[in-house]
Amino acid sequence: MLSHKRLVHSNVKRYYCPYCGMLVKTADDLKCHVRVHTGAKPFSCRHCSESFRWLSTYKSHLLKLHDEGTWFTCHVCQKKFSHKGNLSIHLQRHEGVKLYVCDECPKSFYTRCELKYHQVTHSSVRRYCCGLCGKDFKRSRYVKKHFRKCFDGVVFDDIL
């Protein structure tokens, strides 16, 4: 029970990524995270030549391409999901349950991910920068869109 409380309910992150410095709660979390840097894909499909970095992606592949596994179906709209957790989040939308509330404004969201995405609007931090003009942005998609416009305006002199 103490182990469960420490791992699940604590925000203590004791494991450090040697590649990027990210801190995570468990050794297993670190092992999974390091795959982002190493490119390791330990899950190989037994039906085809595909390999996967994450077990969840591998299971989705087996279900969607090789009809191996079980779909989770919404009883309200019959939409199908390859993961039970995604169905649970989907059902919250039918029920109108928004558990994640912003500390800065009255908005609420269905998932923690949606809340975190929203919270950027309240922050003054701009983590993304155009490599051509130096203008900075809060979201990566904004800098990508800007970069295309900025790149179109660049005049390249003959290099040779």
The main pleated sheet reads as: 2 strands, antiparallel
CATH topology of one domain: Double Stranded RNA Binding Domain
Tell me, briefly, the overall form: globular
Oligomer: single chain
In DSSP terms, counting alpha (H) and pi (I) runs of 4 or more, how many helices? Answer: 6
CATH architectural grouping of one domain: 2-Layer Sandwich
Overall average residue pLDDT:
88
* Element string (H = helix, E = strand): HEEHEEHEEHEEHEEH
Q: Helical percent range?
A: 40-55%
CATH class of one domain: Alpha Beta
Number of strands: 10
Secondary structural class:
alpha+beta
- How is the largest sheet built, in terms of strand order? 1-2
What are the segments in which pLDDT stays under 50 over at least 5 consecutive residues?
Answer: none
Q: What percent of residues are in strands?
A: 5-15%
The radius of gyration over CA amounts to 21 Å
C-alpha end-to-end distance? 69 Å
Structure report:
The chain has a domain at 2-38: Double Stranded RNA Binding Domain (2-Layer Sandwich). It has helices spanning 2-9, 27-38, 55-66, 84-95, 112-119, 140-152, and strands spanning 15-16, 23-24, 43-44, 51-52, 72-73, 80-81, 100-101, 108-109, 128-129, 136-137. The model has no long low-confidence stretch (mean pLDDT 88). The protein starts with a helix and ends in an 8-residue tail after the last helix. The protein is built from 6 helices and 10 strands, in the order H-E-E-H-E-E-H-E-E-H-E-E-H-E-E-H. The strands form 5 sheets. It has a two-stranded antiparallel ribbon. Strands 3-4 form a two-stranded antiparallel ribbon. The protein has 160 residues and is α+β, with helices and mostly antiparallel strands. It is globular, with a radius of gyration of 21 Å.
